[in-house]
Amino acid sequence: MSTRAWFSFLGGILLCAVPLFGAAGTLLWPAGWVFLALVFGVGLAITLMLAKHDPALLEERMKPLVQKDQPLWDRVLLPAFIVLWLGWLALMGLDAVRFGWSAMPVSLQWIGAAGIALSMWIWFRVFRENTFLAPVVKIQKEREHKVITTGPYAVVRHPMYAGAVILFLGGALLLGAWYGVLGALVLSAVLVLRTALEDRELQHGLAGYTDYAARVRYKLVPHVW
């Protein structure tokens, strides 16, 4: 794996760890370390897989979050989502540790950990299946972008976002933060909006996507939406 990829990966860990533990006011937070280990442990496995089998996608994932071919709405929505994500991490540090607003049963924390593991398994499958999984919404003409219909994409049209919703809720439970659950609902609402807008963009701009959408009816949750 390239030095740039390592710096990008380690930077992602730091970007999440600082608001999480900074807001908590301590590093002695086992649930916080489990959260990072689950997310970035699988994240490392995905990164190494891409470095070996799909370096073009890894390179695409390291591009800026604002790009010239990206629609205006995503140039606004994606950075706003990142800010909300970081605020959510800080909120859970304040909630569960610094001020102790929440009292979460240990059984729910275990369910949260299982939810994160499930979301990471979904993400691993998604990255293995879709070489066009750019972080921004755009039609990748230079990479001969085509519709992916196999694996998780045979179930819902946006499985990575489905996994993300599970991650948000599981993370709040694992970290023991009821206010974090409320924050997870806000993040999920923003993601639902992006899902709808991205789906519209793909139907307008990606050949074959309209036919695929007719076959796979659900965007995010099977038999719901």
Please give the structural blueprint.
Blueprint lengths: L2 H22 L5 H24 L1 H7 L10 H27 L7 H24 L29 H16 L3 H28 L3 H7 L10
Helix pairs in contact: 1-2, 1-4, 2-3, 2-5, 4-7, 5-6, 6-7
Task: Give a summary of the structure in a few sentences.
With 225 residues, this protein is mainly α. It is built from 8 helices and no strands.
How many helical elements? 8
State the low-pLDDT regions, or none: none
User: Multimeric state of these chains?
Assistant: single chain
Distance between the termini: 38 Å
Radius of gyration: 18 Å
- CATH topology: the name is Four Helix Bundle (Hemerythrin (Met), subunit A)
Q: How much strand?
A: under 5%
Q: Determine the mean pLDDT.
A: 96
What about the largest sheet? none
- Helix and strand element order: HHHHHHHH
The top-level CATH class is Mainly Alpha
Secondary structure: number of strands: 0
Description:
The chain has one domain: Up-down Bundle (Four Helix Bundle (Hemerythrin (Met), subunit A)), CATH 1.20.120.1630. Helices cover 69% and strands 0% of the residues. The protein is built from 8 helices and no strands. It is globular and about 50 Å long. It is mostly helical.
Please give a handful of descriptors for the protein shown.
globular, single chain, Four Helix Bundle (Hemerythrin (Met), subunit A), 225 residues, mainly alpha
